[in-house]
Amino acid sequence: MNVWLSVPLLALLLVGCAGKTAYRDSCAAELDAAWKEQSLAEAEGFAGTVSYSKAMALLTGAKTQQQFEAFHGCVEKAQKARFYLRESRAGR
């Protein structure tokens, strides 16, 4: 009887673990690209500085989510950070 309960529970746990790694590679790639773009970014004017600050806050949040294995949120934040870095370089 215990075996019949253990098998489905074990399967459920394994599926949960597999789901956590779905965005792992994307998270790492987006963060890598964003940090490279950040090192090249030159803020233009006040608006550019605001966009740059937003990008840095998002990158910090993305890195934190990566550490806690919240990879989907990490990808979203890193993509938004890259957007703000492009806006910063454009002076917006």
Structure explained in plain terms:
Keywords: Signal. By secondary structure, the chain is an all-alpha fold. It has one domain (23-90). The chain is 86% helix and 0% strand. It contains 4 helices and no strands. It has helices spanning 2-20, 24-40, 45-67, 71-90. α2 (24-40) packs antiparallel against α3 and α3 packs antiparallel against α4 (71-90). The N and C termini lie far apart (65 Å). The relative contact order is 0.18.
Quick rundown:
It comes from Stutzerimonas degradans. By secondary structure, this protein is mainly alpha-helical.
Labels describing this entry:
92 residues; mainly alpha; 4 helices; 0% strand; elongated
- Helix-strand makeup class: mainly alpha
Task: Give the tally of β-strands.
Answer: 0
How many structural domains? 1
Which strand-content bin applies to the residues?
Answer: under 5%
By DSSP (H or I, 4+ residues per run), the number of helices equals: 4
Low-confidence stretches: none
Question: Could you report the average pLDDT, rounded to the nearest whole number?
Answer: 80
Q: Note the run of SSEs as H and E.
A: HHHH
Q: What is the C-alpha radius of gyration, as a whole number of Å? A: 19 Å
Say what oligomer this is: single chain
Helix proportion of residues, in percent?
Answer: over 70%
Q: What about the largest sheet?
A: none
Shape: elongated
What is the straight-line distance between the termini? 65 Å
Give the secondary structure arrangement, pairings included.
Blueprint: H1 2-20, H2 24-40, H3 45-67, H4 71-90
Helix pairs in contact: 2-3, 2-4, 3-4
